């Protein structure tokens, strides 16, 4: 039998992060572009006072521990206050993705049993359209002041008025660290969305680990701007890990186009940012078209979907280091980050680049493995690929209100297919649903897309499977050209020669004006497959 240790059993609670920020970095700034159109700035100290007042206000409204409060909001200081206020008091902060369809929004709000919903001015039409269908919601809180309250047929509460009425004299309650802290629904492509219910413990541990130098590497020296929305897996944990290290925090609000983000980077001296590849496409286009440079921006995390090597190169050329990261809503989200080790110092630039294109190492707290169709472990040789399974301190055990376990022998199947090399670097070859099986052999749609993205005329490219009478499936490339760029089907296909195995070269190319994106900015290949489901490849009769 083991012996019980004699150290304090202090629970890991989210409120400890904001109190740490106040005690040690109290004067550091939080800057936000607001929906009202201006820029707001205050300190961690002022933030915590308002968080305490907000908590009192929720108490007065009758919100109890364990109950859910929803948010429909951009990245901003009021959203941050709700994160800390709701979780800190022991209630559950439910971030809702406003880009979801109306019926999905209603399903989520009803399923979560949200008591109140806090929303940014921009989302008033969404609120008005759904209010009648979600009668369980007791009140709608508009995140603005009296002067900016919108006219509405619905009774609305004013966020600033609620805060002003309170003293801020509040002591953070202490409770079980396994209590639910926040809730985020996956934007799955089939079936109803499913809720990942995080705990205080999982969130604090995730924040700790993600701030490590070889994870995201956050420091009090940094000025950090999460472009990734706070409704996409808690902005990858940055609203927790940034105050934990005391860095200056910059929120972009609703304006996420390249020009607005660039301007904010320059104005606030942003050093570090995070977002999905589609966001950086817009920023890069703006910077390249106007021959701009970044004065302070030096590092960015890119994840959510595979970061094309061409994007890493383009950012490197602007002196920006890219940290490729992989994760999921079910993993809080961080699973891996890609950084080099000391032993790689001797490698050529090209060899280093090759490693950095992978999704990377599991960060401490996450354990991963790959298995074959029978569930048998596959070797870590960088070649064998199979289903990627994970477990860890911030990995889901079961979905909110679901009695079915998603686990396989204690491991969570990610739905991704990957290789892992001898050094532990993981590389995603595909989402299992997107895999292309040609004549019984797999083709990585991500690899094909990455090559296409290297062509200077390509803005975005998706590789999907199309039925083929002989090979069962063959790849087809769907391309959005850069504005004003010329590119023919033949030139695109020729570009693949020598870059991938001959049989990986797509059978056809379709040029489109737009590729549909999911609510979190990923290419919606399911939609493309539907669009081209009756398409006959020119090779079908060959
Ligand atoms: P979500 O829960 O919506 O964030 O989606 C998680 C899924 O996004 C993962 O299972 C992967 O399929 C995909 N994903 C996230 N990051 C990456 C990455 N760096 N490379 C490839 N796929 C990624």
Short description:
The protein has 542 residues and is α/β, with parallel strands linked by helices.
Helix-strand layout with pairing:
Layout: H1 15-25, E1 29-33, E2 39-43, H2 44-61, E3 68-72, H3 77-88, E4 92-95, H4 102-112, E5 114-119, H5 124-130, E6 139-142, E7 157-158, H6 159-164, E8 180-185, E9 195-199, H7 200-211, E10 223-226, H8 233-236, H9 238-245, E11 248-251, H10 258-268, E12 272-275, H11 277-289, E13 299-302, H12 309-316, E14 321-327, E15 334-337, H13 349-356, E16 361-362, E17 366-371, E18 386-392, E19 412-420, E20 426-431, E21 436-438, E22 441-443, H14 445-453, E23 458-468, E24 472-481, H15 489-495, E25 508-511, H16 525-531
Parallel strand pairs: 1-11, 3-4, 3-5, 4-8, 5-6, 6-7, 10-11, 10-12, 12-13, 13-14, 24-25
Antiparallel strand pairs: 1-2, 8-9, 14-15, 15-16, 17-18, 18-19, 19-20, 21-22, 23-24
Describe the largest sheet.
9 strands, mixed
Strand order across the largest sheet = 2-1-11-10-12-13-14-15-16
**pLDDT averaged over residues:** 95
Give the class from helix and strand content and strand pairing. Answer: alpha/beta
Give me the count of strands. 25
N- to C-terminal distance = 71 Å
Report strand %.
Answer: 15-25%
Instruction: Report the uncertain regions.
Output: none
User: Roughly what percent helix?
Assistant: 25-40%
Give the overall silhouette.
Answer: globular
Radius of gyration: 24 Å
User: What small molecules are bound in this structure?
Assistant: adenosine monophosphate
Tally of helical segments:
16
